[in-house]
């Protein structure tokens, strides 16, 4: 339910229909926030933990909201904030993620619940809650999108990250369901990256092993994720599909 606002506030909010990026303070999310801001979009990012990148983003004009999607309360508070501040949303990019491994978890049931909470339940709740905002974004700007950042493992599975892989597969399935529900006003697509960039702590042996898993044998960097997002945001005839950024890994 929307709060009552003045005519001036209504016009201002309608003009600023943002692209929302969850988990936008690091890696691909951070790169997308910078690039889309440079493209002229109003961008809102969420973050769970304070990072130095938040200051950098705010200087660029990006609005940064602290949100924890690992709890229902955190999701509810985020939904309420967006409804209070905006009359429409141009795009919603579900990038918030957590990498959980069975070998590192003392409570496997909790691990499975957490992976599905962050990767499936949170996007599910947020998509439904923002349906009217996205449709309003379409009505005023002629385009509205939802992008789910899934993972290559959703297709192949993982023996070391079983809960994580299953939850990313669940997110991929949400793409099909929401594409049907929101058509023809809101396009809903996924991006499924494999290796895009290493972490600083990854050693040489691990890096070479990872590179050998794809046909192209390269670390392409976050720019490939940014290009995929920009393509979806400008494409008008694709929904319910997945862009795979895996360097031909499925053929190895």
- N-to-C series of helices and strands: HEHEHEHEHHEHHEHHE
Overall geometry: globular
Domain unit count: 1
Low-pLDDT parts are 1-15
Widest β-sheet, arrangement of strands: 3-2-1-4-5-6-7
Number of helices: 10
CATH architecture heading: 3-Layer(aba) Sandwich
Fourth-level CATH superfamily: NAD(P)-binding Rossmann-like Domain
- SS-derived structural category: alpha/beta
Distance between the termini: 50 Å
Helical coverage, percent range: 40-55%
What is the mean predicted local confidence, pLDDT?
91
Give the SSE map.
Layout: H1 7-15, E1 19-22, H2 27-38, E2 43-47, H3 52-59, E3 63-66, H4 72-85, E4 91-94, H5 108-129, H6 131-141, E5 145-149, H7 153-156, H8 162-182, E6 187-193, H9 204-211, H10 223-234, E7 242-245
Helix pairs in contact: 2-10, 5-8
Write a concise synopsis of the structure shown.
The chain is an alpha/beta fold and 252 residues long. Helix content is 48%, strand content 13%.
Structure explained in plain terms:
This protein has a 7-stranded parallel β-sheet with strand order 3-2-1-4-5-6-7, sandwiched between helices. The chain starts with 6 loop residues before the first helix and ends in a 7-residue tail after the last strand. The chain is of the alpha/beta class. The chain contains 10 helices and 7 strands. It has one domain: NAD(P)-binding Rossmann-like Domain (Rossmann fold, 3-Layer(aba) Sandwich), CATH 3.40.50. Helix 3 links the parallel strand 2 and strand 3 (63-66).
List the keywords.
Rossmann fold; alpha/beta; 252 residues; disordered N terminus; 10 helices; 13% strand
